[in-house]
Design a protein that fits this description.
mainly beta, elongated, 25% strand, disordered N terminus
């Protein structure tokens, strides 16, 4: 008998669906991950292989001397020589990959790093534009070497996936993936991304594990600054720091989910392709700095049920926004929050008690009407900082 929760299963079959109580269809049994019983292995264009055996490196460290053994500079970056490396595997006997081990290997197409490897050096795969397969083992939980994967995948006919889901607690800094190109990027739980870690990158999708921190809240650690990304799923992210996606483009919509408890200045500032925004960050979310969506091209804004505050200059200079609806859960609006949203034709604030607002929240907003609950019109006209918009305040049309 199999027990799942309160369900007892007496008859359980795999495969043939005839005369069964529960049918799971075709079931795939995943094999164990392949092991690599050596320190390093290199495959070359002509099919020749070079291997560093376990007993050849007593320190468990692979250096550029190991990887380049028997190769000239011309063979490292050459286009046609049979010695040109196309695939490398850092095996189970390797624990440390030193600096610049495959730097400038311009025809390298596949990199596999065993789960036994724990350390990656700076510039290890610097200028490896044709990589189409990149497998990083679960033993890596810190990537701090400067430009470790600089320009990876830029010229590859098939962009590599970057699946880091098994690297729980991963920390990435120091331009590790600067100017690299990926298909799907998956981050693990409790991941921390900062110091321009993916600046100027390109990717089809980004998805994040729970507890992820994108850029430190107090410094210019613009993790995805000036990136080109088609789709971003922020579910699981807890902190979006200053300049995290500054100038990023490619994606047309973004949702800030309720998992986000810190949403800091200029996070999506100047996102040229952004058209639709949903903010549903946590009710107690904090803001360090302002202008999170300032100077973007958004024409649609949805405010979810969780937020209680809109930060200062959060949507300033969003001149393609035409209609603004602020729900009753918003009790506070920061200074200049919607300043210079010159395309607005109406503003509706659906809260009986006027939210606390700082100065010039609605300045230069096309002098459009500000609709409030009918019973609260006089209260809004008299409230601090609302009074400067008294001539525009009127009852919500019925």
């Amino acid at each position: 008998m199999i027990k799942i929760g309160n369900l007892n299963i007496d008859d359980f079959y795999l495969g043939d669906s005839s005369d069964v109580k529960i049918y799971l269809g075709e079931v795939k049994v995943w094999p164990e991950k392949e092991s690599y019983p050596y320190a390093f292995r290199r495959e070359s264009r002509g099919g020749s292989a070079y291997t560093v055996a376990c007993d050849s490196t007593s320190s468990n460290t692979i250096s550029s001397g190991n990887t380049r053994s028997g190769l000239s500079n011309a063979q490292i970056s050459g286009a046609t020589q049979t010695q040109t490396p196309v695939s490398v595997i850092f095996g189970d006997c390797c624990h440390t990959i030193n600096d610049a081990v495959c730097k400038g290997w311009t025809y390298l197409s596949s990199v596999t790093i065993s789960d036994k490897v724990t350390t990656l050096g700076a510039s290890a795969f610097y200028d490896t534009p044709r990589i189409s397969h990149l497998e990083i083992g679960s033993g890596i939980t810190s990537m701090t070497g400067n430009q470790t994967f600089y320009k990876t995948g830029v010229s590859a006919s098939t962009k590599p996936d970057l699946n880091l889901a098994a690297n729980i607690g991963l920390s990435v800094t120091n331009n590790v993936f600067y100017n690299s190109y990926f298909n799907n990027v998956i981050f693990p739980k409790n991941c921390s991304l900062g110091s321009n870690s993916f600046e100027f990158c390109s990717a089809s999708t980004l998805s994040f594990g729970s507890g992820t921190i994108i850029s430190d809240g107090d410094s210019y650690n613009s993790a995805f600054r000036n990136c080109n990304i088609s789709n971003i799923d922020l579910n699981g992210v807890t902190q979006i720091g200053k300049y995290a996606f500054y100038g990023a483009r490619g994606f047309t919509s973004i949702t800030i989910p309720s998992t986000v408890t810190a949403f800091n200045g200029s996070a999506f500032y100047s996102g040229s392709s952004l058209e639709s925004v949903t903010i549903d960050y946590a009710s107690d979310a904090t803001f360090n700095g302002n202008g999170q969506f300032s100077r973007t091209s958004i024409s649609s804004l949805t405010i979810g049920s969780h937020p209680t505050e809109i930060g200062g200059l959060m949507f300033g200079y969003c001149n393609k926004l035409t209609k603004l609806y602020i729900p009753s859960n918003i009790s506070s609006i920061g200074g200049s929050a919607f300043m210079n949203c010159s395309g607005l034709t109406s503003i509706t604030v659906d809260r009986a008690t006027p939210p606390t607002i700082e100065s010039i929240v609605f300045n230069n907003t096309n002098n459009c009407p500000i609709y409030v609950p009918a019973e609260s019109v006089d209260a809004y006209k008299a409230a601090t900082n609302w009074s400067e918009y008294a001539s525009r305040i009127q009852a919500i049309p019925t």
